[in-house]
Each structure stands twice: as C-alpha cells, then as structure tokens.
Amino acid sequence: MEQGTLGKRIAYHRKRLGMTQEQLAQRVGVSAQAVSKWENNLSCPDITILPELASIFGISVDELLGRTPPKEERVHEAEVIKPEEKEHILDYTIGSAARSGLWFAIYVLAIGALFLVNALGKFDVSVWTILWTSALLLGGLSMLTHRFSCFSIGLMLVGGYSLLTAFGFLSIGFRWSVLIPVFLLLWGVSLLVDYFCGRRRKQHHVRASYGGKFTQDTRCDNGHLSCELSFGSCRVPVVTPLLRSGRIETSFGDFTVDLSGCEAVQDNCPLTVETNFGSLTLLVPDRFAVTVSGKDTTAASLNQRGTPCEHPEAQILLDADLSFGSLEIKYI
C-alpha cells in the first residue's frame, strides 16, 4: 500500500472493504464527487469526518493520516474494533447479579413455586400472568438491591400488586388507568434524578444508569465472530478477511453491527443473533445475501431494508432469537 497521501489511503481502504465511492459517500453524508476529489488529492475531507472514516475502515485516525502506530498499538485485520461510546446513553440494567445468573435462578424458583401454589390451591391463574408479574416484581427487586431508584420501586409495586390481585390475596382494586400513570410518574422522577446527578458527575456525557454499565465483549478469532453487547448504544465494525461464523448477543440497548469490513464471507455462513429488550441493526454489504434460516420471536420484529445484488458472492444463514426487541437487516 502506498501511504504518500491521505487520498490514496482513503482509496486503498475503500477498495479493501469492497465499497464504491457512492457507498462511502452515503455512509459519511457527502457526495460521490467529494469522495472522488479526496482520492485524487483535489481536496481533503473535513476534520469532523476523519473519525467517521477511520471507524468505517476499522483503523485509527492516526493511521488514516499516515502515522504508523507502535507495534503494540497496531490493529490487526481480523479483530473487531472497540466502538466509541455515544453521548446521552441510557442504560437499563437489572443489576450485575442478574447477568451472572443469580436473579435468573431466583426467577425460575419463584415461577416454579407459583405454579405449584396455583395448582394445589386451584386458583386458576394463567401462565402468562404468573410469568410477567413475577418478572416485574423480581426485576424491580434486583435493581433495588443494587441501587435505589424510583423506577425499581415502580416495577416492584406494579408486579407485586398484580400478582397478589391475580391470586386473590389483595381485595383493593386499582384500574390500569391508575396504575400506568403512577408507574410512569415514578419512572420519570427516577430518570430526572439520574439525569441531574449524572450532569454533576460528568460534564460531557450523561448516563442514566440503574446499577450497571455499558458492556462490550467482541472478538473475531480466525473468522469466527463473537459479539456481546448490553446496556447502552454503540456501533461495532467487524474487520476480517473471511467471516466463517458468528454469534451476536445484545440486550437492553440500541446497537449496530457493521459487516462492511468483511472482505469475504464463507458461503452458507451460520450467524446466530439473540436480541432481548432492545434493538439491533445489522449492516450487510449488498454483495452478500442474508437468508433467515430460523426465527423465534416474542413480542419482537425482524425487518429488512434494501436488497442484495442480483448475484451475491455468498449467503449468510441467520438464526434469530428475538424477545421484546427488534432486528433490522440493512443492505449497504
């Protein structure tokens, strides 16, 4: 690769990713003519565009500008580049103990006990009622044990009241027209408290967090992608010479996984996506085609924007497991 000018570096990385000038222009919000001028050294990109270009190419700004980093800082081609955390991230968490499985175990035990009480006591409470009421109650409790917030108290009150009412242990009746506004008021108060407290702690970023923090664990070993994202919002560019398989797990956040850095994809490449309580956008170059081989959705949606080219280079077999969220496959 010739590193003489910025324009030649832009052209090299664009071609390395198999992108046209029009596609790159669309990604950074300029015209194709502007990209052409950059690559022919007739003009230079605005300084505010350089970080976005570097992120798309999966390199640092220093490398884009021609500065070779020290060996220990160099990004290898098959690695997933760690994303930058966006401003104004709103993290929803049910506590670190939940992620370790403790609260899930308690939830399973509680459901089992409630099913047993329901059967022996002949209460005739529906399975769905037991599931969602106990989930709200224990979810609020797990959040409250990690950090106090009005939101967690609201979850506990709604879940506990609905559970006791369903089993007939509470005779006081409140309509949903009252419960929902009360819950929203508690939630709003909690968000305001976290917002203003967060502004005093940090000037540039606002994080409304209920006991947890942004989690990003990504790696791509020998073309096998493993990506785990939770409690936040970010974009993860994947850069690898050949994508052989992948597993993406996201929860409680708004995430984007960009596959435009994959130079090639193994045909019938298996890709498993699990999204819970959040949204995931999968950016796929249109020279590859995504086929949904399996789909398990619970109060979730799977959408596709755009279409692959007429003769795609390879197929990606997507197995989607979605719960209370959405997955969008966007061709670029």
UniProtKB/TrEMBL annotation:
<keyword id="KW-0472">Membrane</keyword>
<keyword id="KW-1133">Transmembrane helix</keyword>
<dbReference type="InterPro" id="IPR000014">
    <property type="entry name" value="PAS"/>
</dbReference>
<feature type="domain" description="PAS">
    <location>
        <begin position="51"/>
        <end position="101"/>
    </location>
</feature>
<dbReference type="Pfam" id="PF22570">
    <property type="entry name" value="LiaF-TM"/>
</dbReference>
<feature type="transmembrane region" description="Helical">
    <location>
        <begin position="102"/>
        <end position="121"/>
    </location>
</feature>
<feature type="domain" description="HTH cro/C1-type">
    <location>
        <begin position="10"/>
        <end position="64"/>
    </location>
</feature>
<protein>
    <submittedName>
        <fullName>Helix-turn-helix domain-containing protein</fullName>
    </submittedName>
</protein>
<dbReference type="InterPro" id="IPR054331">
    <property type="entry name" value="LiaF_TM"/>
</dbReference>
<keyword id="KW-0812">Transmembrane</keyword>
<dbReference type="InterPro" id="IPR001387">
    <property type="entry name" value="Cro/C1-type_HTH"/>
</dbReference>
<dbReference type="InterPro" id="IPR010982">
    <property type="entry name" value="Lambda_DNA-bd_dom_sf"/>
</dbReference>
<feature type="transmembrane region" description="Helical">
    <location>
        <begin position="127"/>
        <end position="144"/>
    </location>
</feature>
<feature type="transmembrane region" description="Helical">
    <location>
        <begin position="151"/>
        <end position="172"/>
    </location>
</feature>
<keyword id="KW-0238">DNA-binding</keyword>
<dbReference type="Pfam" id="PF01381">
    <property type="entry name" value="HTH_3"/>
</dbReference>
<feature type="transmembrane region" description="Helical">
    <location>
        <begin position="178"/>
        <end position="197"/>
    </location>
</feature>
